[in-house]
From TrEMBL, chains A, B:
NCBIfam families: PRK09970.1 (NF007426), XdhA_XDHase (NF043082). It comes from Desulfocicer vacuolatum DSM 3385. The lineage of its organism: Bacteria, Pseudomonadati, Thermodesulfobacteriota, Desulfobacteria, Desulfobacterales. Keywords: Molybdenum, Oxidoreductase. GO terms for molecular function: iron ion binding; xanthine dehydrogenase activity. The keyword Oxidoreductase applies. It holds the Pfam family MoCoBD_1. InterPro entries: Ald_Oxase/Xan_DH_a/b, Ald_Oxase/Xan_DH_a/b_sf, Ald_Oxase/xanthine_DH-like, AldOxase/xan_DH_MoCoBD1, AldOxase/xan_DH_MoCoBD2, AldOxase/xan_DH_Mopterin-bd_sf, XdhA_XDHase. The keyword rRNA-binding does not apply. It comes from the Bacteria. Residues 17-133 form the Aldehyde oxidase/xanthine dehydrogenase a/b hammerhead domain. One of its GO terms (cellular component) is xanthine dehydrogenase complex. This is Xanthine dehydrogenase, molybdenum binding subunit apoprotein.
Length: 769, 769
């Protein structure tokens, strides 16, 4: 049984030996490099641009400006094509812009022999602007006479409301208590190891080849076609190994530009390789949210009503736009399905770096507010935080009232119990009672999460797999599911091994996507891959298994009903005897002159289900009041992601997500000057990303359920672990200090202000406690 | 209808613009180059080798000798694995050898930074030999006490006899006349534009990637695995565009060595790029043949008996060995199926460059002798050469007595009539009667040919195709059939367009093979591809067509029986109305959230038939006796290759084959010193390959038959055109001069000797006529 085992990653050796080829490793001897000329203001319009001097610099091949690019606006969000208007992404982007909407906006691009020359040339470009007041804060953006950041469009990119359950107003009226709170999450960045990089060339006058570090090769192909008005079959996107994406490569950022450049330069290879600084300001960020939450709760601990009002800031361009707020908001219905709930959200343009998809896509913001508010409600009625959740969270058999679907698998209550036991909730609570005063305080916190296993019914969910038997009795598997470091190729290999009854080592995954040949799949996002691909893989493997057994029957004259595959060998089940090994069968199928053929199977599958996943995080912290510093003593995240295909790899996802959650909770924030739109910390020195020394040992555990809509019982796991650590930490700070500090990150700066405001320290930071 | 149209090649633009990527265009920044150290003697054994100085040269990374390579001998012939012993290729080769068997044999190899350093290093290698007398001529090789060129093996690599039809001896006894002749063909070389080139690297510690200019990527993969004892799935062979092969790349020549080197050098990329000189002596050549033919003929023109005895020289190693003589010999039964025939052939080792597969694989030699002998028989009884053939050659319905199969399509008689008409046979014959004396003589000649459409039943015949519908309503086609310049990708696209009823432009062929993902096919040889792949393509395209129509039925609620595809659009046949275009259907199949999926189809097919093809060449020549020179005034080749998929491309094959045939007929020969084994003309200056100025305008025509065992009625065409020009020219020389000059090439040197021997010129070359 390959599923459930912690097998080594299929790409482990390639990666640890440095042999794995990333986009930058694909070399063309005559490749040119391109560098963006970026705006030095946050809001305005170019009145004049002079590129002559840059063009005349030795080694410069071309300079293009907003005057040279196609006029059709396009969306960049990595979504499958929507057949209905209601889910189409906002098309608000040009390849280069005259209208400047954030500091770093792309006005022109230089193509040169090498990066040195390109950087020199950038300095020679002269530009003048009409400057406008940058719109950074919601109140300024929403002001009645505020300038439209995109002329002709409202500054509100999207807005929606929903309600589910009973009448919400009535429910609030009947509630014993109503608890309110306002929450704010910060603009953070993905900080994947490999920056955005793409190159393109033409190996025919009729075809553009793009090699790119992307999560969505098939979507990139489609959008490039739309931007350049080229049939999609004339574009080929190759995705080599990818050094992380976390959603930032679920946007089509560089591909249209490198395609445009090679087309302009007669097919010559052109690469864009963003620096870290460019990557931080010029790709995507996580939307900062402003959220007001109202919770109606009964004395017995039942949450009866909830209202949430959220503002999401998408920055200069829509990118994933309002769908991030919508997706985040929808998770309320799977986490607390029994409370009457209303939700209102607006997404705003702003003169800030563009927000897009980032790990868990709106849920970290929404669930941060939700789980802080839930904690506040529990405290309001004096109920134990864990008991309060146990009473209110989703259970198997609940109906998700937004989707109308029954929750078929849910282990959240067991997750809470496991987490409570691990952290020693009862004893610690008691022990920490004496640490509620003085300079060093201690507390416990927890938060729950729910997430989905894909995007259905918002987007189409499709995956494909082709499996071919090799002459040596192994198989090669091609999938559209996109490995970006998360380990999807490995779980695909495990699934194939499981269904074929092959040794895991005998399943080889083709470790790159090439849109000309790879089965179609929309890519790596929404924690969809292992879930959606499971049914494609299962169908293809089942089909191949049948073909193998049919050929075995032809070879042996044994009735196929009496044949089986066991550990990669053909077995006569009636005699419990091995009939032949897989190599013998494969050789015959390929090389026998009259019978057999190459044995392959392919399946393309659309998922019309979407399994919710659950989890929780418990933390034990120490708060040093005078130092304004939080120390995490212990932390555990417990997840229900259905059947765990690969425990060690799944653990890796939880640990990685927890790191990222701790960063968002304690230190990460892209600091933007609210007056000028200047970004203070566009680099990894000033952007306080946690390192290994900044995070505590993290523990994880699973509550394995079996999700019947997945072929192997598995559900999403990639994104969820990032969601619950920040509210758990905020709730622990509340437990330790009695203060509701609702703005992330809980950095020394934030804590200082809060402690000062509440008199724990004095004006100068002196210790009052 | 795409089949039968002279559409542009799918790779035309890529090639004429120089964008098509060949093996040398795949670059690795740190790639090393390897150069063979070759023997300077033709026969002997290395007694000592010192590579120290070479190893110490700056820039040299390694030197390997025969001491360092695996000890298991392997075959290099590009044949599919044979499951029975009788068809296994001779395993007589090591990666490097201590026993020297031809001048240029590979004793050691230097790996260096670049070619300059490698060449310097080669000069520093010191070697001493035990020298043996080279065995070059058949009489020396077959001498009772001749040294075994491969110790422990006979110098006779293979030998076989066959008979078909009536008792041959009796038939000779009853014949009115018996005509005998002895014929000799030369060692010639393929002279493809792109020399042999391969490189290999490891992108994992567990996997070797080989990029190679090969006709047989899947076979190369298997043989490399056998040589290095690595499972075949751990080897990946990529075939980019190929600059011709003509059979010389149907041998696994460089791939095992580059794979061995990268394995030894920790996965670093290593390239071998043979020079033209190395390619001429160190790859493969066409087997020279010595053939005796006896023909029994009746006064009415019926050939009643034939016996042929052939010696084929394979040179230092077996490579394709005796199968070339066997394959060539077998064509008698499809060309003259009604004569009682016996055949005996032996293939000999010799201390000469290695012979292997070359365009038409033994048939140019056998049919040269056969068609010269047939001409001699016609003249013996005074019958017109054309009438004599018309009486004796194969007709539809004849039984090929060797295979036992009926000839289902045969237009040879019509080919002869077309050729006769074009050349103006009757009038010219009359006109040229007055040119049979004097210094300038004129004559007409013709020769027929037959060939096969694959290797069945000798080898397995298998082809695969996968077709995927793209979102823009085009399709991508993956085939294992290997494009090497012959145009196979184009005919595949035409076949797919035909069966799908798509515009040809909407069928895109993936123009590279990658053994990890490409459907299995044994490769480009035996003129098999268009024939064998036809049924795979037809099945896959038919399957995809059905899936498309099924989806159209789902979308439209029209019964599928009333739907059809016409010119790439969905049509309601009952209303004769277009329902939607293919893009609309494709978009729905990909992106509708509940119905459809990616529409793909794949088929792997084994052919258990093998259609014979036919053709003939007519020439009109002038022989200048004092100058010993032949001028071709007109030439026409007429072919029955079933349905012609692409007339212009097929014409290209005929013209190319005729060029090659004219070269073999008039000028080409690799000259080997019979005493030392020295090769006099290992370069394209001294090896007299015809250029455009050397060949006359060539005409071609077709007699289209419909071959029912092919999905599109087509049969082989790649190799056959090379077969008939040499005997046609020899027969024309006979017509012009009355001399049977039976040794190829009919170069001035050969003609001088013949003319002198027959008194047409005197000892000093003076004109006697």
């Amino acid at each position: 049984m390959a599923v459930g085992k912690s097998v080594n990653r299929v790409d482990a050796m390639a990666k640890v030996t440095g042999r794995a080829k990333y986009t930058e490793d694909f070399y063309h001897p005559d490749m040119l490099v391109a560098k963006y000329f970026r705006s030095s203001i946050a809001h305005g319009r170019v009145t004049a641009i002079n590129t002559k001097k840059a063009e005349n610099l030795d080694g410069v091949h071309a300079v293009f400006t907003y005057k040279d690019v196609p006029e059709n606006k396009f969306p960049t969000a990595g979504h499958p094509l929507a057949l209905t208007e209601d889910h189409k992404d906002a098309a608000d982007r040009l390849l280069l812009t005259r209208d400047v909407r954030f500091m770093g906006d792309e006005i022109a691009i230089v193509v040169a022999q090498n990066e040195l020359v390109a950087n020199e040339a950038l300095k020679l470009i002269e530009v003048s602007y009409d400057e406008y007041q940058p719109l950074i804060l919601p109140e300024d953006i929403l002001e009645e006479n505020a300038r439209q950041i995109h002329e002709g469009s409202s500054n509100i990119v999207g807005e929606h409301t929903y309600t589910f359950g009973n009448d919400v107003d009535q429910a609030f009226e009947k509630a014993d208590h109503v608890v309110e709170g306002s929450f704010r999450t910060a603009m953070v960045q993905h900080c994947h190891i490999e920056n955005h990089i793409s190159h393109a060339y033409m190996d025919d006058l009729d075809k553009i080849v793009i090699v790119s570090s992307t999560q969505i090769p098939h979507i990139a192909r489609r959008i490039v076609g739309e931007v350049l008005n080229i049939p999609l079959s004339r574009i080929r996107v190759i995705k080599p190994f990818v050094g992380g994406g976390f959603g930032n490569k679920q946007d089509v950022i560089l591909e249209p530009m490198v395609a445009f450049l090679t087309l302009k330069l007669n097919g010559r290879a052109v690469q864009i390789n963003l620096s870290r600084e460019e990557c931080i300001i010029g790709t995507r960020t996580r939307h900062p949210f402003y959220i007001d939450v109202k919770t109606g709760v009964m004395n017995d601990g039942t949450i009866v009503a909830r209202h949430m009002d959220a503002i999401s800031i998408t920055g200069a361009y829509a990118s994933h736009g309002h769908s991030v707020a919508a997706a985040g908001g929808s998770k309320q219905s799977s986490l607390y399905p029994r409370a009457a709930t209303s939700f209102h959200a607006r997404t705003l343009y702003a003169n800030t770096p563009v927000a897009g998809a980032m790990r868990a896509y709106g849920s970290p913001q929404i669930i941060y507010a939700l789980e802080c508010a839930t904690e506040d409600a529990a405290r309001k009625i004096g109920m134990d935080s864990v008991e309060f959740r146990l009473k209110n969270v989703a259970r198997q058999g609940d109906i998700n009232l937004l989707s109308g679907k029954e929750i078929l698998s849910c282990g959240l209550a067991d997750c809470l119990i496991k987490g409570r036991d691990f952290i020693g909730w009862g004893e610690k609570k008691k022990e920490y009672e004496k640490f509620k005063t003085g300079p060093v305080r201690k507390g416990l916190g927890l938060a729950c999460l729910s997430y989905a296993s894909g995007t259905y019914p918002v987007c189409v969910e499709i995956a494909g797999a082709r499996i071919a038997l090799n002459q040596d009795g192994t198989v090669h598997v091609m999938v559209g599911a996109t490995e970006i470091g998360q380990g999807s190729d490995t779980v695909v290999a495990q699934m194939v091994a499981q269904t074929l009854s092959f040794p895991y080592e005998n399943v080889l995954v083709v470790q790159a996507q090439d849109t000309d040949v790879t089965p179609f799949d929309t890519g790596a996002y929404a924690s969809r891959q292992a879930y959606v691909v499971s049914n494609a893989v299962f169908r293809a493997a089942t089909d191949l298994r049948e073909k193998i057994l049919d050929h075995a029957a032809v070879m042996t004259d044994i009735d196929v009903a009496g044949l089986d595959i066991v550990d990669g060998n053909i077995v006569d089940t009636r005699k419990s005897a091995q009939v032949m090994d897989m190599k013998t069968l494969a050789i015959d199928s390929f090389y026998h002159k009259e019978r057999g053929c190459q044995l392959t199977a392919e399946a393309s599958f659309k998922a019309t289900t979407n399994a919710p996943v659950f989890g929780c995080t418990f933390v034990d912290i120490t708060v040093n009041i005078p130092l304004c510093k939080i120390k995490i003593n212990r932390m555990i995240s417990v997840h229900d992601s259905g059947v765990i295909i690969n425990p060690v790899q799944s653990g890796g996802q939880i640990h990685g997500g927890a790191f990222m959650g701790i960063g968002a909770a304690l230190s990460e924030e892209l600091l933007i000057d609210p007056k000028t739109g200047y970004i203070y910390n566009n680099n990894l020195l000033d952007y306080k990303f946690p390192t290994f020394t900044d995070v505590p040992p993290i523990h994880h555990d699973f509550v394995e359920t079996f999700e019947p809509t997945s072929a192997y019982g598995n559900k999403a796991l990639g994104e969820p672990p990032v969601i619950s650590p920040p509210p758990a930490i905020r709730n622990a700070v509340l437990d330790a200090t009695g203060l509701c500090i609702n703005s992330l990150p809980l950095s020394p700066h934030t804590l200082f202000t809060a402690f000062k405001d509440h008199g724990l320290i004095d004006e100068k930071g002196g210790d009052n406690v």
